[in-house]
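Researcher: Quick test of sequence recovery. Tokens follow.
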């Protein structure tokens, strides 16, 4: 039986290779050069991933009503310990998209909160947190590795790269997990000479 490669696996491996090469130039054939437009930090520490995920979420408070937050919880029941924090985030974010396999029912608690379950099983082994605005491009992307006697293990990275954040967003769009962000639509209108001012509310 042939197992399908997990989504984002190749990208995670690429970022790991960048960390392991002091000079990333030999990787340019495999890794797009424009991915190197920000900081990259590869980690296998669950504690670090938790810390950085919360930091990415909390960036909503510094760019109020402009940030769109995408959070993959693998299973929606994993949201429950964080629900109070997400209620606070909803007051600060432009939109919040919570993505997960619907093992429990979660109802949106605010007009800007969206619960996405369609095709969420494709991300059942991924940990993804993205914060996107005109000024903020932050992403955490990790893959859960096979468990052993020591428990769960992850491999992944976090970054403030605009290019890489948008690459992950576009892959989620191609997977039919999310639709095109409002920000992308607004930028396309501006580039096409549409309305002179596009409201960000």
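Model:
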């Amino acid at each position: 039986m042939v197992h399908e490669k997990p989504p984002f696996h190749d990208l995670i491996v690429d970022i790991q290779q960048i960390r392991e090469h002091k000079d990333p130039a030999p990787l340019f054939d495999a890794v797009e050069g424009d991915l190197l437009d920000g900081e990259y930090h590869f980690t296998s520490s669950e504690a670090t991933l938790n810390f950085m995920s919360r930091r990415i979420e909390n960036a909503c408070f510094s760019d109020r009503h402009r940030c769109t937050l995408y959070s993959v919880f693998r299973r929606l029941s994993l949201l429950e310990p964080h629900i109070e924090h997400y209620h606070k985030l909803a007051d600060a974010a432009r939109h919040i998209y919570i993505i997960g396999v619907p093992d429990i029912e979660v109802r949106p608690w605010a007009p800007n909160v969206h619960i996405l379950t369609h095709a969420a099983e494709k991300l059942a082994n991924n940990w993804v947190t993205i914060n996107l605005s005109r000024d903020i491009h932050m992403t955490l992307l990790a893959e859960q590795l096979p468990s052993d006697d020591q428990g769960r293990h992850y491999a992944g990275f976090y970054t403030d790269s605009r290019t890489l954040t948008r690459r992950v967003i576009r892959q989620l769009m191609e997977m039919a997990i999310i639709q095109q962000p409002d920000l992308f639509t607004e930028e396309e209108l501006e580039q096409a000479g549409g309305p002179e001012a596009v409201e960000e509310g």
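The chain has a mean pLDDT of 84.
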